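User: Can you predict the 3D structure for this chain?
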Amino acid sequence: MNGVKDKVWFLRQGLFAKYVVSLVGLVVFVLAVNGAVETWISYRSTKTTLTDAMTEKAEATAKRIDQAISELERQISWVTRASQYTLEQHRADYAQLLNQVPAVDRLYLLNGQGREQLRLSRTKVAVNAQTDFSRDARFTETVTRGVSFSPIYFEGAQPFMSIAVAHSGFNEGATVAEIDLRFLSDFLGDAQVGKSTFAYVVGAKGEVIASSAKGPEIAKDLSGLPQVAALLTPGGAPLQQGTDADGRSVLTTSSPVPKLGWNVFFEQPTTQALSPIRDQLVRIALLIGLGLVVAILAGSVLARRMLVPITALRTGARRLGAGDFAHRIDVHTADELQELADQFNGMAGQLAETYSDLEWKVKERTRDLAQSINELKVLEEVGRAVSSSLDLNAVLPTVAARALEITHADAVLIYAHDPANHTFNLTEAIGIDKAGAGMHLAIDADNSPLGEAARQGEPIAIADLDAAPDHPLREFVVEAGFHSVLVVPLVDQKGILGSLVVLRKNAGEFSQNLIGLMKTFAHQSVLAMRNARLFSEVNQTSRQLAAAHSTVQQQAGKLQEQTEQLKDWNKSLEERVEKQIGEIERIRRLERFLPPQVAQLIASSDGHDALLDSHRREVTVVFCDLRGFTAFTEQTEPEEAMNVLREYHAALGELIFRYEGTLDRYAGDGVMILFNAPIQFDDHTARAVRMAVEMRDTIGQLTEKWRNRGHNLGFGIGIALGYATLGQIGFEQRLEYAAIGSVTNLASRLCDEAKANQIVVSRRVYGMVEPWVDGRPIDDLNLKGFNHPVLCAEILGWREEVDNVVDAAAATKRKKKQ
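Assistant: Here is the predicted structure, written as C-alpha cells:
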C-alpha cells in the first residue's frame, strides 16, 4: 500500500512532474519569446511605415499652405507697389484683387499716421472713415517689419486672419487684408488624406482652423491634447502617440508652418492602425497551444523511463538512512544512475566500518573534555590569584608561582622588556638561583628565543636544549641542569611587557594543551601587570597633581594682574574696531562709483597709487547692447524706456558680479566689462564667454517679456582678447579705472556686427574656449578702424557641466581666507 502511495506521489510531485513541467515550460518559453519578438518587430515596422507615410503627407500639406500664404502675400503686395496712387486708383486695385483672389474678404487702406482712408469688401465701400489704427499691432508691426500676420480669429465657425503690407516709400501707410481661411480645408481632402486617416491644422493657440472630413470641428480648442500641447510648449518635441478629441488613442505626426506658427497634424486611430498585430497574436497563441500539447506528450514518455532506477535509489537511500548498512541497491542502466548506485553501495560499506569505531572515539573525546574542564578551573583560580594585587612587586612572584603550579615544571623565569636598550631583563625567578644567572640577567632581544616569541606573539617550545642551536639563554639553563624550555611572550595590543620562561630538567615535548593553557595564562598575567603599572602611574600622577595645585594657586595672582591688563587692551581694541567700521562704510560708498574689485583692492592696500598707475596686461573685453534701442526710445515714453533700462542693467549686473568681471562703464544700453583686470584669473576668457552665454539666455527671456509689451528689441554681444593699458583716467575731482587699447575697439566693433541673440568673438577668443563651447567660424568681417579683415566666430552654446560654473561667492570666501 505504501509503495502505491509513493508511486502516486512520485508521479504528481516528484521528478516525473518536474521533468514534464520543465520541458513544457521550455517549449512554451521559446515559443512565447519568439512570438513576442516577432510581434514587437511587426509593431515597430507597422508603426514606422504608417508614421513615415503620414509625416510625408503632413510636410507636403504644410508646404502647400506656406506657398498659399506666400502667394496671398505676393498678391496683396501688388496693390502697394505705387506710393503716389490716388484714392480712386487704390480702390480700383482693391476691387481687382477682391475679384481675382476669393480668399481676400476685406481690404483697408491706412495712411502713414494709421488713419483709415479706404475700406472695401465685396458688398460695402467706406471712404475716409478716419478710424484710428495707429496703436493696432497690424499697423505698428507692419511699419516696423514691412509685412505682418495677425493671430487667427473666428466669426462664427469661419476662421480669419489679417495680412498687412507696408506701402513703398517713407511714411506711405499700409494695406491690411482680411483673409477667409476656409480655403485651407481644400488641402485636406479625402484624396490627400486617405480613407482611414484624418487631418487638421491648428493655430498658434491650439484652435482648429482647417480640418478634413473626419477631423475635428473648426474653431475647436485642441490645446489640451498631448500632441498639440507638446508643440505649443517652447522647446517641445513632436509626439508619435496621442489622443483625439474624444479621448481615443491615435498615431500622430505633425509638420509646422514656421512663418505663421501653425501646425499640420495627420492622425490615424491606433486600433485601426495596429489591427494586423492582433491577427498575429492570435496565430502565436494557436502555435503555443500546439507546442504545449506536444511537449506534455514528449515529457511524459521521457520521464517514465527514469522512474524505475530513481525509485530504487530513493528506496535504498531510505534504508541506509535507517541504519541498514547491509542493504545494496541493484540498478543496471549503464549510465550515471548506475554509477550513483555503486557509490551508495560503497558508502554503505564505509559507514559500517566507521560506525564500529564511533563509540571508542566518543569515549576518548569525553576524557579530553573532562581534562580541559579541569584545566579551565585551575586557570580560573590562577587568574583570581594573579589579579588580587595591584603591587607590581607582589604580582610578579605570584605569576611565577602559579605558572610553576600549572605546568608542573622545575623552574620559572620572568623577564621584563626594556624597549630603550632592546633587551629582556631578568626580574623574577623561582626554582633557580637568580644570582646564579650571572651575566644572563639581560638578554639581547634580537638573538634569543625571547625576542623571536615576542615578535611572533606565539610560545616557542624547545624539547631538547642539547640539540638546539646556541643562544644566550641555552648556556645558562644547561649549566643549571635543565634540558627543555617553553618561552611564552607577555604581549598585548599596547606592546611587549616581557617573557615567561618555563624550565624542565627532563627533555621532552610540551603538549599542545599545555602550550595553549600557558598562552591563556600569559594573557591574564599581562592584564594583572598592566593594572599594577597603571596603579603605580596613578599614584605618581596624584603626587604630581598636588604639587601642580600649589603652583596654580601661585599663578592665580598673576592672572588677576593680567586680567586688568586685558581690560585696558580691550578698550584699545574697541577704539580700533570703531575706526575700521568707519573705513568699511567708506569702502561701501566707494563701490557705488567704482568697480567692486578696484574698490576692494584700494581698501586692502596701504596706498592705491601703485594700483592705479598705468600698466599693460592681457584682458578679455566684453561689449553688449540692445538692438533697436534708439528707435525704441524715439517711439516710446521716457519713463517706459527707463524701466526697460533698469530691468536690463539689473539682469546684466547680477551676472557680472557672479563671474567677477569688472564693470568698466554704462553708456545707455551699451555695457563694457573687463576680465583679468584688476583681479587676475587664469580662466578669464572662459569666464567671459560663459557669462556672455548666460547673458544671452537671460536677456532673451527679457526681450520676450518686452515684446509682449510692444517693444521690439534684440541683444548682441562682442568679445575680444588682447593687451590693453590699464589705469586711472579723468581729472582730480572725477577719476575712473579704464582700459585703453585696440582690444576694446575690436570688442565694440564685434558687438556692432552681432545680430539679435548672437555672440560674435574674435578667432583668438574662440581658440581659447573651443573645447567647452559649441560654435562655428563666420565670414571675415571688415570692421571700421581696422585695415584688414578680422577672423571671427559665433558662440552657440556652452558644453561644460553645471558643476564647473564659477561661484563668485565661493571664490570671494577663498580669497578672504588666503
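Confidence is low (pLDDT under 50) at residues 802-818. The first helix runs from residue 2 to 13.
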